[in-house]
Amino acid sequence: MISLQQISKIFNPGKVTEVIALKDISLQITRGEFVVIVGANGSGKTTLLNIIEGAQMPSTGRIEINGEDVTPLPEYKRSRWVARVFQNPNNGTAPELTILDNFRLASLRTQGKKLTIGINDAFKKKVREMISGLGMGLENKISQPMGNLSGGQRQALTLLMCVMDNTDILLLDEPTAALDPRSALVVMNLANKLNKDLNITTVLITHNLKDATQYGNRLIQLQEGKIARDLNTSDKGSLQLQEIYQWFE
Asked: How many domains does the chain have?
């Protein structure tokens, strides 16, 4: 599904401000895996997600998705495989548009000029049904501007919007960092459900170490741009929260 082969990323190479963000990373992620990535600030977590998404190009190495070399492809050309949820709930939606119009845009993400999508009653019914599963009471408010919603509501809707079109990979970049505990729980449980129900390959960056133990079937620790630990389902399942805290001491 995702194959990173000897990926390195150097910012400002050859200058006094040079930063080596990733150092010779090789990583294989199979279809349907839910991989959780932890690490201190500056360990390379967001850079790794940016490179998978195509928001940044690697300095060296090769990236494959579904066996296809996507190394030179920019973000918009990888959108047929990859969707991303950012830390800031405002980044995933258009605040001036209604909930329905946001879902319509999401369904058009990779479909070019199919402008009729989202204007019929069947589409509205589908959106309402998807939203009703959140238990937030938003299914009857699809004509409300997205900007009027809370951060937790917007983040949950952003997750649903990610699966409106064909999506193989879901990148979650600290999606609950700006949310209250109740909203964070809704978002994380939804991400877990989408991963299981749709078999979407999911990569989560989090500083919430409790979430790192509770969600996902694989846990990776990045440290100074390298993979320090890579725990499979069995090893992750037996891991205690206190042990992860010790990784950062």
From this structure: 1
For residue 55, the domain's CATH number is: 3.40.50.300
Q: Judge whether 86 lies within some domain.
A: yes
Which pLDDT score is estimated for 110?
Answer: 65
The C-alpha atoms of residue 156 and residue 247 are separated, in whole angstroms, by: 31
Separation of alpha carbons 107 and 222, rounded Å: 34
pLDDT digits (tens, 9 = 90+) for 8-50: 999 999 999 999 999 999 999 999 999 999 999 999 999 999 9
Residues 6 or more apart in contact with residue 127 via CB below 8 angstroms: 99, 100, 103, 142
Instruction: Give the per-residue pLDDT at 118.
Output: 55
> How many angstroms separate the CA atoms of 245 and 159, rounded?
29
pTM of the predicted model over 0.90 = yes
What is the residue range of 167's domain?
2-91+151-247
Where does residue 243 rank: exposed (0-12), middle (13-18), buried (19+ CB within 10 A)? exposed
Is residue 83, in this structure, part of any structural domain at all? yes
- pLDDT tens sequence across 163-221: 988 899 999 999 999 999 999 999 999 999 999 999 999 999 999 999 999 999 999 99
Examine the pLDDT at 112 and tell me if it is beyond 70: no
| Spatial contact of 175 and 164, defined as CB atoms under 8 Å apart | no
Distance of CA 117 to the CA centre of its chain: 25
Q: Is residue 10 part of a domain?
A: yes
